[in-house]
Amino acid sequence: MKIGFIGLGIMGRPMAGHVIRGGHALHIYSRGTPPQELVEAGAVVCGSPREVAERSDAVITMVPDTPDVEAVVFGPDGIAEGLGHGKILIDMSSISPMATKKFARMLAERGCEWIDAPVSGGDVGARNATLSIMAGSTPAAFERVKPVLELMGRNITLVGSAGDGQTAKVANQIIVALTLEAVAEALVFASKAGADPMRVRRALMGGFASSRILEVHGERMIERNFEPGFRVELHQKDLNLALQSARELQMSLPNTAATQELFNASKAHGGGRLDHSAIVKTLELMAGHEIGGGAAKVSQT
Amino acid sequence: MKIGFIGLGIMGRPMAGHVIRGGHALHIYSRGTPPQELVEAGAVVCGSPREVAERSDAVITMVPDTPDVEAVVFGPDGIAEGLGHGKILIDMSSISPMATKKFARMLAERGCEWIDAPVSGGDVGARNATLSIMAGSTPAAFERVKPVLELMGRNITLVGSAGDGQTAKVANQIIVALTLEAVAEALVFASKAGADPMRVRRALMGGFASSRILEVHGERMIERNFEPGFRVELHQKDLNLALQSARELQMSLPNTAATQELFNASKAHGGGRLDHSAIVKTLELMAGHEIGGGAAKVSQT
């Protein structure tokens, strides 16, 4: 298949590498210097997103936010201008579900398909081709591109129609953030009450409190290992998307809002680039107590 | 071993049954009529908690709240008056960790040991002898009573010294409540955004959002199965204990406080006796949208 790829950042670059090594012709566009390793592997550098679309059967976008997707697809010299009938746009960015549905309708008017396929698993998952991919699409389009997605991830689910992949991603980020916060409240409580947080964590692992977050990030919090992982400032961006979307949908996400405030406080104290499990530091500051003993300190990183 | 048991309610009654069927002599005290099946099985009915303590090597208490434990142990004709040197008090109620530490010191002055051994698993776990038990005690006392605890549960952990079992229980209830709330926010969001919540739940199960709560209670929320399980009003009581304890410890549990308010709202709308997964109904009211479709309604049960 002839694949286009736009958005060759920390995530997109290794993902594009998997696609070309998977035997697909790759067309790329980059505002800066195109990544050396992709060019050496045979990627064709194009002069605009439009040209990428003209020369590809399917174009993958992996850019930071909703306005970036809108610009690269529907802006001047954008993908939409070059995307002929029957071609597919695969947006792997994490953006607004509602905007995605609008974009999909706009592409459908040109006879093209939109697949939203946001990922989780971070840059490690991108490098190791172990991303989880939550897709929204028609079943037919999904089947056509599935072999390409399988080069980049391994837990690939068609959640529903266009937009539903982004909805699932938002739901994922809500649950992960709020579970992190829950584990942090519980462990700071346990530690300040004088118990050994590691033994409390272990006692809770068998029952209804058990989760991947308690297992992995609970341990991080106790061992003070805040190397990312997934950064506080990226989770902030995702919760912002959740809260914006909730406002559009006219609904309330009370604990998501409160947790966003705790991430904001985490960033205020220099934690933006730490792993998101560092939300525990904000609760420690509020408790005047750090897990494992000392008084909580503001940590500059 | 000669075991005393005080607090023969919905939990205590089946638990006492397991103890006597396990071959231990059982001494009970009850303000009302003593349970027929225990008397038939050979339990000795005593005239006061003091008498129960006099005739037992270890006394188990399973009563609703901190003041109830204080009254039955340290009140007139209470357990402490009958508990001679070397005897053990096993408090399986869910009460304040800080009060527990004080009670343990008071018993220690009389040469007696305090073991806090709160449980999770509800009345189903009590009946089936599958409770999880989080104990705080000296290792020696724990080893002495462990065979008795094993008659009532199967996931039995010595978390630390006296009070630490209660601390672990509070931590457990914080995590369970906040994870329930997280799953509820995510599924109401997904449903109102137009996705199928069951498919979203399934897509999320493999990744960092996965938890026992997403698995079991996420399904309950989608299938509208709010038969308890564990009741909203009992979880309210436990979060109240968490918030009181946090105030005593001088620390902040922001999302526990917010979630308690959502349980309060759930009770206000007639949900107090529903399973705690019914917290989703409060979020549905706030969203004007019920998972699966309709506008959210106030449900009287």
From TrEMBL, chains A, B:
InterPro entries: 3-OH-isobutyrate_DH-rel_CS (IPR002204), 6-PGluconate_DH-like_C_sf (IPR008927), 6PGD_dom2 (IPR013328), 6PGDH_NADP-bd (IPR006115), HIBADH-like_NADP-bd (IPR029154), HIBADH-related (IPR015815), NAD(P)-bd_dom_sf (IPR036291), Tartro_sem_red (IPR006398). PANTHER family: 3-HYDROXYISOBUTYRATE DEHYDROGENASE-LIKE 1, MITOCHONDRIAL-RELATED. It comes from the Bacteria. The active site is at residue 169. This is 2-hydroxy-3-oxopropionate reductase. Residues 2-160 form the 6-phosphogluconate dehydrogenase NADP-binding domain. PROSITE patterns: 3_HYDROXYISOBUT_DH (PS00895). One of its GO terms (molecular function) is 2-hydroxy-3-oxopropionate reductase activity. Residues 163-282 form the 3-hydroxyisobutyrate dehydrogenase-like NAD-binding domain. It holds the Pfam family NAD_binding_2. GO terms for biological process: glyoxylate metabolic process; organic acid catabolic process. Keywords: NAD, Oxidoreductase. NCBIfam families: tartro_sem_red. Belongs to the HIBADH-related family.
